[in-house]
Amino acid sequence: MHRKHQNVTVFLFLLPALLLFVGVLVYPIVASVHHSLYEYRSFNDPGQFVGLQNYIDLFNSQYDFGTAVRNALILAALSVFIQLPLSLGLALMLGKGIKGERFYLSVYFMPVLISAVVIGMLWEKIYNPIYGLITKAFEYFHWTGLPPEGLLGNKKTALLAVFIPTIWQYVGYHMLLMYAGVKGVSTELREAAMLDGATDGQVNRYIVIPIIKPILKVSIIFAITGSLKSYDLIKVFAKDAYNCSYKVPSLLLVRYAFNNSGGIASAIAVIMIIMCFAFAILINWLFKERDPYGKK
Question: What does the alpha-carbon distance between residue 193 and residue 17 come to, in Å, rounded to a whole number?
Fold first, then answer.
């Protein structure tokens, strides 16, 4: 009887969090799946059931959804192979202890605290083809090769130009996660390895990085899912969410949601959810497979 009463008490304490989880996460996902099976011409339209037709239509040239997914995957790849190595390098450098360590931590983390809209407006000025900092630097040093329409206006450089502010904003975020892991590595392990003649690079490679693998896994998942869901920073750059050369799924979702295509927008949302979950599961599986101790 006492145990039953205890279970009821635990459930009542968990109930608010459970209701919040269902209302904020589970219900929107279920609603998106339901809406994606209907064609909505307006918010007040009850909708007409069309099954999977919205998903089929998405990959027609009319919506150009394939290009948006490709751009998002490119941003995700750049985040994993450029942003995270930079963050790891900074974390390893600061984690071993240098003069002014706390100052550098604050400086690198500061962009994370700035609104993405503010960062977008700042970098939009930097990229301006007339008076931007990059344009003036090319003029001052007499460099050539800068597109006359600017980095954001050129199809070949636009996506990379969008990614650079993302590096600047979030490299400090991932650095701080990794830095916490690096500082948690036992000093005795480091000293023992150094006494055996190991260099700093060997200590990082064979001791520090294997220990902080769980943090690296989390950073990779955050970087990939964050790139797939990216919106606010790119929206500042994109004057036309459909015709810009660096469109991503989130831009199209908002565009169609407010242009009488609620079913299409819901289908985009469902695909984005599936992609985020799929990559999270894949990364978890890859890290389990590479566990040197064979633990599951």
Answer: 46
